Amino acid sequence: MLRWYQMKLASRPLLTQSVTTAVLFATGDVMAQQAVEKVGIDKHNLARTGRMALYGGAVFGPAATTWFKFLQNKIKFQNENVTIAARVLTDQTVFASTNLFCFLSSQAIMEGTSPKDKLDSAYWTALQKNWMLWPAVQAVNFKLVPLEHRVLVVNIVSLGWNCYLSYINSQSK
User: What is the predicted pLDDT for the residue at 172?
Assistant: First the structure.
């Protein structure tokens, strides 16, 4: 399986990472609905899972793939630890805050609710929680993981994170 994934990453990196991200975003939502909210299979909101998959595959996957390549190519210092710190700082101040804004806004639009209300009720809390988790994850990711696998690492950690995002998104209506 890993060999097949490696081949797909080499031949079609953006598509491979986008599809992987869509599947894992949907999985995070299923976890939120079934394990956290305990709605049961009969009351599972498939549209919500679909919205998460759509955002993951169409927005986050391509954006993260492009972003990590940008960080790798543009943020370089003589000292490797300074480089990693600068990448984490840039990631958390630029990408994380923007992505969270886009996520909450787009979910509200797809749900037919107010993006402003969604942002007012969930953005700051979610961003603070983001800063409790992601700087450490990204420091390890940038230090130890090859560029082509960074989105996958983020996606695996995101199973829990997307479960949280899906839950907070569903609570802030």
Answer: 62
